[in-house]
Amino acid sequence: MMAIRELKVCLLGDTGVGKSSIVCRFVQDHFDHNISPTIGASFMTKTVPCGNELHKFLIWDTAGQERFHSLAPMYYRGSAAAVIVYDITKQDSFHTLKKWVKELKEHGPENIVMAIAGNKCDLSDIREVPLKDAKEYAEFIGAIVVETSAKNAINIEELFQGISYKGLLARRPQLVALSLTMLCCCSLTNPSEVESRFLLHHLFSVCKIC
Amino acid sequence: MCSSEEASLLRLEEVFSAALAHINSLVLQPLLLTEPSDAWTRECLQLLQQLHQSSQRLWKVTEESRHSLRERLHHPDSVGLESLLLLHGAERVLQVHIEYIESYTNCMVARAFQGAAKQRSAHWRDQRKVLQQFLWAMGSVSLEGAVGPVLVQSLRQPLTHHVQQYVFLLLSLGDTIRENHPTRKLVVHAATLFGNLQSFMSQALDEAMATEALWPTLSSRLRDELCNPADRRLLQDSRDIPVTVSPLRADRVLLFRDSLVLLQGHHVHTFDLKLVWVDPGQDRDTLHVLTPEEEFSFCAKNPQGQVAWQRKVTQAVRQALCGKKDFPVMGADPEPPEPPACRCEAYTFQVEGRLCQATYEGEWCWGRPHGKGTLKWPDGRSHVGNFSQGLEHGFGICLVPQAAEDKFDCYKCHWREGSMCGYGICEYGTGDVYKGYFQEGLRHGFGVFESARTASQPCKYTGHWELGQRSGYGIGEDRDRGEHYIGMWQADQRHGLGVLVTQAGVCYQSCFQADKMVALSVPLCLFLLLLELLRPALSASPNPSPFPGSSVRPPRAQAGPCPPQFHLCPHRQLGLGAFPVESRWRGVYGPFWDFVQAGCPGDQQEALLGFHVQSSKELRKSQEYLCCERTPPEDSTDSIADLLEQLPQHREPGALQQYLKKALSNSLHPLGKLLRTLMLTFQATYSGVGANKHLQGLAQEEVKQHARELWAAYRGLLQVALQRRGQALEEDEDAETRDLQVHRLVLPLLLPSFYPELFTLYLLLHEREDSLYSQGITCLSLFPDTRLLEFLDVQKHLWPLKDLTLTTNQRDSLVRDKCFLSAIECLQKMITTVDPREKLEVLERTYREIEATVSRVLGQEHKLPMDDLLPLLIYVVSRARIQHLGAEIHLIRDMMDPTHTGGLYDFLLTALESCYEHIRKEDMQLHRVPSRWTAW
Ligand SMILES: Nc1nc2c(ncn2[C@@H]2O[C@H](COP(=O)(O)OP(=O)(O)O)[C@@H](O)[C@H]2O)c(=O)[nH]1
Ligand SMILES: [Mg+2]
């Protein structure tokens, strides 16, 4: 039996950017048999293998309404990771994202893994936020970034995988070498465009940690 | 048909009866006429009176026997042989004879006949002839010489002859009856009895003669000292069989029927045989004698002498303990029965020392108080209880009178080798009370001392003691000043880190030295007091946050050591680092672990658990009959052996929970007793003045620690139980399993015991937030349902309007508390339990109710995202109107199983907390933007 590691993940972002949709997609796409109890679409769990461990994601949704922003610290305290979502078709949502990042840096848990998801990438024709901006910003703050589409199930798995690995590495630097070899193997066996992009990103972040 | 023997028996009785009548008129009556002139003659007269009575009884029995014989002879066909008194009442006849012999020998030893005869010598000279004639008629050789011996002879001779004839005739009668006939057995039995009586009589007479002969060999002073009581008989004299005594010195040793006497010059040392133990020494030539205060050995010249003394002393002790002479007389058995080693007697100690003049009444063994007993000193001090090897050992009650009349110090305690050790209750004459553990007579370990209410400085101390002094962690309550000290003590003084709480609610942590606070001057004290009082005004500062109105909980300050720290933060907790929770109540657990490590010995159960006795008042009343009336643990079902027997039978989760629940509620169970004591410490610390919000952290970690410790205690008992069954011991569980058991199993069982005090602390800590929340609730309660839903931005399609069977107009204006009613009612059940897990389950059910309502409204299953859930939850929470929700939430969070962290329950609790926070702040918003709905 593999060890199960629980990862509390908190969803942040404006209303309507697709937070709930991303989680629903992630959790329901691979419908596993052991249905763990949920609180509607507000609290969900999903267990995925990661290296020689199982990672159980405990995903906490937050209310996106402006008036509830002040309640967010209660939700993100003790989180291993935060998924901050913006809508690539809305510049405003990217602005809000920056405010969340700032707040997390100041008041969030130490070593929280931040993952930026530019959602609705299926609508890239009406895009307002260029991918480059997001990448630069992510690089600057040391966060994972990926453009997703909950609608078309693009990069949803990868988003959480990224969190998994980064969380793993952040906690256990001694596993870096192992993970690197593992990543290389993966890239050889599954050389899809998305995957390799992700792996490269990981290599970067790993190097930064080391 | 009657045999000739029966006829002879009848004649025998007739002759004897006549002889007795004769003796009475010739001898006894005249003797009784003597006028007593001095003490001796008065005593003689008394003995003669007794003899007279015995003789009367003897005569009556003889008459009765004669009558039964005549009846039988007259009606031999209708009256059976067994109707003879001699046969069916042989024991009674025998008894009367023995009695007569006793009275007779008493008179003999005291020379009563001689004494009485001297008085009226003229009379006896005249009567002498008649007497001699009478004796001659009885078949005796005539006596020449003094009157005394003639009288002696006249009173004995007929009896001896009579018994002799009984035996002879009964034996011949037996021969006439054929074998196997039931009456034959009766006859043989009677013949044996009277045969035995013959040897008994001759022994009694021998002893009496030896005693009578002893007196002239002693000085008159010694004789006077030794001649009482009247039935004292000499059994052995060192002049006959010489012995030397050591280390006590004696030039003559006399063994009497009731006592052993050592004579050394004029000095007499008398030992009551009931308290003499004979131990045949290692070497066969010495004989060890144990008495309560002396120990000495006899050494005879040769082994025969040794055996004779040992046999005599042993027999005498045994007979003294029985209170009567052997019947039948012991023959020369090689192994005569030994007297019991354990006896029940009273004795007053004489030798200088602790016990001088004290009287012990109770069980003895080998010369020492051993078993249950009462020890009383002439000054009124008394000890009732168990003794071992001469010392107080085991349970005991000791009363020590105080100078003032009717005042006692009463110690109900466990003793070990003469001093208090283990659990005890001491009620002092002054009204002070100590309940706790002792060691070597001093308060040691955990204990509670409470001074009398009337004391000049009423105080209470709950905590640790060392060698009679307050030392270690403890709570001191100064009732006069209303001050409460929580912290370290040394040598009866506050010393080390401590938290001081005053009645005004001021609470500070400081360093103490020899009862004085260091580094805190009086003016500073006052200044800080002022600050504390002004705190509400000062602490209302806005907190910086990225979003308007957002707040970050202040991290709880860790209390450091000296100098004293004061904090304006309302949530500041004191004492957290100062008193490590693992060792805080070590003294409570100490005796338990000692007990477990010793393998749970049954005789130490009471020393650990305490006991049930009457109050000292009742004890004092019944002091005369002080006896250890308490429910003995070995009789009840709670004996430690039974308890350990049951323990491993309840291992399955459900059974274990039931078992622990029962055990914890039973104060006779070691776990229950632990819990009881812990509750005591908890109340002492956190109730009354101690109910201060700055102590919430201390209290909270203490409760959790207790759960851990009690689980460990259960495991400890389990190991002993398994060991007793010869089963393999349990491996140590890993930390995770342990935490799980502690939180899932033990904490919920324990929490109710600490809940009142604990919850009060949470109430106080969150008082301000809770009052703001209450205001918020009050404001929101003014809204009708639909208005509130609207105000909370609940999406219209989720409104359960079907629940409202009213007009649109009414919906908007009046309806209250109709929507989501099932969820609201469910949430309200949260306060009906103290178990955090149950509270969380209530919360989950509340969510399910909300979800069900929404699904019903939408006509399909709906998974609520947080955007929708939070407003709905705020709605439900505001309608449920749970008081002190903040305190509730924080208590649940602190007591929650840590494995739930990040999980479903954590999420729900956080959601609830966010609702609470929102309502708390919503209050302000309401005031800020009232126009939004008043416009409607
Ligand atoms: N085209 C497109 N629409 C999306 C995507 N993800 C979410 N949406 C839509 O965006 C709206 C808001 O989504 P929701 O998950 O409720 O956002 P939330 O408020 O952040 O939880 C919904 O109408 C979704 O259908 C996506 O990847 N592509
Ligand atoms: Mg949502």
TrEMBL record, chain A:
<protein>
    <submittedName>
        <fullName>Ras-related protein Rab-31 isoform X1</fullName>
    </submittedName>
</protein>
From TrEMBL, chain B:
<protein>
    <submittedName>
        <fullName>ALS2 C-terminal-like protein</fullName>
    </submittedName>
</protein>
